[in-house]
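FORM 7B: Structural annotation worksheet

SECTION A. Query
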Amino acid sequence: MPSSQPYQINKIVELIRFTNPKSLLDVGVGFGKYGFLSREYLELWDGRNEYNDWKTQIDGIEVFKEYLNPVHDYIYDDIFIGNASDILPTLKTKYDLVLVIDVLEHFGYKEGMELVEKCCNIAKNILISTPLNPDPQEGVFGNDFEKHKFRWHKKHFAHISNKYCLYAASSLIIYIGEDALTVKSKVRNESLQSRKFQIVHLMRRILQRL
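SECTION B. Predicted structure
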């Protein structure tokens, strides 16, 4: 699908923010959601840049050019059309972060791991998300590449070092790369602060009722 699961959006945006990449590659851009969110939360959310004065390089790869729309023209610097497995070895940029969001389930195990390896060759970090239980799916919207081929589990990434695994509702998320431990620490700290805030808020409400 040119879309992806909504339940993982908060986690993925959080991981992108904590990485704070200066260059990002979105593999399988689809409708353009994660390029759009990356542009917003890396450039605008904290007011660090002027509107339209983009500082972050955001590129994409899309095998099905019919998915491209005016959003892509505004958000992405470059979009490479074709199969990611063929395009990745030709790219010259060493990206700070590569997104592979709801893409791996469209590859068999062998070709999927080859894709991950090719991403590792051009990136400091890779952020992968894949459904825990992908529904059976053939080609949709005239795109035969949308077929679901494999169900990925955490064990399939056991041989990879420097990784951080987490879950978001119905998704398995794997963060691989140089910043994996740093990002993991930031996620835990954010979660701890959120829990402290919730406890304080709850205590205030209880005291107000006394």
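SECTION C. Observations
The first strand starts at residue 23 and ends at 27. The beta strands are 23-27, 57-62, 78-81, 97-101, 125-131, 163-168, 171-177.

SECTION D. Sign-off
Analyst initials: ____
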